[in-house]
């Protein structure tokens, strides 16, 4: 693909705001292909164009491309419900709600419904064209509306944008367009509505935008210097800089201005992990047995830590004297006499209002000389009387917001297991042994409030076995086994790494790991359960094409009281028909009674995995496996509800790729035991 000549790329005058139409044309080109490299090329050519003509719009352009208005820690949520959007489409285009609903019933895609509604609407005057920065600002205003009358304000915000949105499909008149076949073309109305729904569905993954941005920046900088097109090696170098910087500092708000000022190749010097910008935590790979751990870590030094069953917490702190060194921290961290501090969840949500009791005592665990840090920990419910860890269920009873430190009934203890930043320096590149030493040197135990994760550096099978048993007796979930020395033991933000393995207590039975699944639908109960939902349809997330693929029905593990609560929680999320990004069998008897917006994530355990035509999880990935074909997906046998995962967004649910991996491992184990005469 070239960025000049008679290509379809729209141009605009240098310095002018980027037209939203230009972005939508790019979206439409991306939507028309499934080839990853072409998608990447479209995205990077467009970003290069923005860099060349209107670099000040690069940030909102990237944000609109990744369907996020701000970094995760800013807590800005869009995900506007269908009913509100339908109302706004109706009111903007002068069509009745019932017509919009019937269109939605027929087309099944609100973006296309909006495009069609705009097409049919006679325009009296030509509205001022939308710009990328204008759309970004408008959407931000909608997202931030809160409190009394917020619904109406949101609707009027949507109407404002939608009435200025163009409906025309590329190069065609408005007559005779088959909106479904045409996918709605580059219609601004379509992409606006999809953005509001939280899914652009272009097949443009967030990671691809990051790579596209790196390529655009490298090519642009080479052109500025009058050089030739950059070599593949140079492009790869730029990519690796940006990826590494973004993993430690996942904030385009900080990175993009720094890149525009200093150039992409100097980014690692100016953009480093810092207090105030939460990073995505390092994650572990599941294992099914201690012997598997020993096989994987053979010949390497490793350590086993208790796996506490609470909530992941990343604690950031800056002392009063050091605040001036961290300009980004004042906006995100809470300020008090002790300095700046906050607690972030595993998906960078600010938990400070949930755990004011932790922040109030934080100064008691810091040793003298510590001026700033980022800690990786688990918050766990604590039994004050018996001085021991309590099960996760106790932690769940705590309020999530506006907790007053003095009202707290369920006490929590922080168990620290890693140190990512200390006194002005990131520590992530150090070995775990070094980080652990710094952690112990910089903090002190405060009974029932702060402790270090229990650990042992053994590699003896029996010792690990007994440590696992002890951990379970201490109300933990099992062990985390981590590489201890060498560079392999560095902290890998946002990565599910082979250098961290989790061994859960029930590894011997079942799958070795639970799954976190999204609730897409429900079935009304029978007998005692007729007034509530008695079973639910769950799905895993396919990150490569941003769809939710169904994996099982679940009706086990719920108390009557819980079912009532779930009915209350889920009823407002009901929608008329499945979203176009849900993949499920279309056989009538397989359909749930109610469909929902994708919001809730539940942890689920199961006996094993099997192939089924009814469910679609990882169907594309298992093609070629014995028994697959005809669109059969992987499904869970004997699924059981464990707990809600409020700390995970639907897009953070177990991926279909992970499900496929579990299935392959299960099949490999089955084959192996068959070879051994069926005895494991
Ligand atoms: P995943 O996405 O890996 O499924 P999860 O949040 O569902 O993550 P688990 O798979 O059960 O959690 O295990 C990893 C989690 O265990 C971490 O995110 C952390 O919250 C918790 N944890 C408890 N103790 C430790 C420890 N010593 N080291 C690392 N993580 C720990």
TrEMBL record:
Residues 405-542 form the ATP-dependent DNA ligase family profile domain. The keyword Nuclease does not apply. The keyword DNA repair applies. One of its GO terms (biological process) is DNA biosynthetic process. It is an enzyme of class 6 (ligase). Coiled coil: none annotated. Its EC number is 6.5.1.1. It catalyses: ATP + (deoxyribonucleotide)n-3'-hydroxyl + 5'-phospho-(deoxyribonucleotide)m = (deoxyribonucleotide)n+m + AMP + diphosphate. One of its GO terms (cellular component) is mitochondrion. One of its GO terms (molecular function) is DNA ligase (ATP) activity. Keywords: ATP-binding, Cell cycle, Cell division, DNA damage, DNA recombination, DNA repair, DNA replication, Ligase, Nucleotide-binding. Belongs to the ATP-dependent DNA ligase family. This is DNA ligase. It comes from Talaromyces atroroseus. The chain holds residues 173 to 852 of 857 of the full protein.
């Amino acid at each position: 693909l070239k960025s000049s000549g008679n290509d379809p790329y729209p141009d605009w005058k240098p310095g002018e705001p980027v037209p939203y139409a230009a972005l939508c044309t790019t979206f439409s080109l991306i939507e028309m292909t499934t080839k990853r490299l072409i998608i990447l090329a479209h995205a990077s050519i467009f970003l290069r164009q923005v860099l060349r003509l209107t670099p000040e719009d690069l940030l909102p352009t990237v944000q609109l491309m990744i369907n996020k208005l701000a970094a995760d820690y800013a807590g800005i949520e869009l995900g506007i419900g269908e009913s509100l959007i339908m109302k706004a489409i109706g009111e903007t285009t002068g069509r009745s709600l019932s017509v919009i609903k019937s269109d939605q019933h027929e087309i099944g895609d609100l973006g296309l419904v909006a495009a069609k509604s705009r097409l049919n609407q006679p325009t009296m005057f030509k509205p001022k064209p939308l710009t990328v920065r204008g759309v970004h600002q408008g959407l931000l205003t909608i997202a931030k509306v809160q409190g009394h009358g917020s619904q109406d304000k949101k609707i009027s915000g949507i109407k404002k944008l939608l009435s200025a949105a163009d409906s025309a499909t590329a190069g065609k008149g408005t007559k005779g367009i088959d909106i479904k076949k045409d996918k709605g073309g580059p219609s601004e109305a379509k992409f606006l509505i999809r953005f509001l729904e939280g899914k652009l569905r272009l097949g443009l993954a967030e990671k691809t935008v990051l790579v596209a941005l790196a390529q655009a920046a490298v090519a642009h900088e080479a052109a500025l210097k009058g050089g030739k097109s950059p070599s593949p090696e140079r492009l790869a170098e730029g990519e690796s800089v940006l990826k590494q910087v973004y993993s430690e500092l996942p904030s385009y708000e900080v990175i993009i201005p720094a890149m525009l000022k200093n150039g992409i190749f100097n980014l690692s010097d100016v953009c480093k992990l810092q207090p105030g910008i939460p990073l995505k935590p390092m994650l572990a790979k599941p294992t099914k047995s201690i012997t598997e751990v020993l096989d994987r870590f053979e010949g390497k030094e490793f350590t086993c830590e208790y796996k506490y069953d609470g909530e992941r917490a990343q604690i950031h702190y800056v002392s009063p004297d050091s605040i001036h060194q961290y300009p980004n921290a004042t906006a995100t961290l809470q300020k008090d006499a002790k300095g700046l501090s906050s607690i972030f969840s595993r998906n960078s949500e600010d938990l400070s209002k949930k755990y004011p009791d932790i922040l109030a005592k934080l100064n008691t665990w810091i040793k003298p000389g510590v001026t700033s840090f980022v800690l990786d920990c688990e918050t766990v419910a604590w039994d004050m009387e018996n001085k021991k860890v309590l099960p996760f269920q106790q932690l769940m009873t705590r309020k999530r917001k506006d907790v007053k430190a003095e009202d707290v009934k369920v006490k929590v203890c922080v168990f620290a297991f890693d140190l990512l930043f200390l006194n002005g320096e990131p520590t992530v590149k150090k070995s775990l042994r070094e980080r652990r030493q710094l952690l112990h040197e910089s903090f002190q135990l405060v009974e029932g409030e702060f402790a270090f994760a229990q650990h042992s550096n053994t590699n003896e099978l029996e010792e690990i076995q007994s440590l696992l048993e002890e951990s379970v007796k201490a109300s933990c979930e099992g062990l985390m086994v981590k590489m201890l020395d060498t560079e392999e033991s560095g902290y890998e933000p946002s990565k599910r790494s082979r250098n961290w393995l989790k061994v859960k207590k029930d590894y011997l039975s079942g799958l070795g790991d639970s799954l976190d699944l999204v609730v897409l639908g429900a079935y009304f109960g029978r007998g005692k359960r007729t007034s509530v939902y008695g079973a639910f349809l769950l799905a895993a997330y396919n990150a490569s094409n941003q769809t939710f693929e169904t994996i099982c029905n679940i009706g086990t593990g719920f108390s009557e009281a819980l079912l009532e609560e779930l009915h209350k929680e889920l009823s407002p999320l009901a929608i008329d028909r499945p979203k176009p990004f849900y993949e499920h069998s279309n056989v009538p008897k397989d359909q749930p009674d109610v469909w929902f917006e994708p919001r809730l994530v539940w942890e689920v355990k199961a006996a094993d995995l099997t192939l089924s035509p009814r469910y679609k999880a990882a169907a594309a990935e298992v093609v070629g496996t014995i028994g697959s074909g005809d669109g059969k997906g992987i499904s869970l046998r004997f699924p059981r509800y464990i707990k809600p995962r409020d700390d995970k967004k639907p897009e953070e649910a177990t991926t279909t790729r992970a499900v496929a991996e579990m299935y392959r491992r299960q099949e490999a184990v089955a084959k192996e035991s068959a070879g051994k005469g069926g005895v494991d």
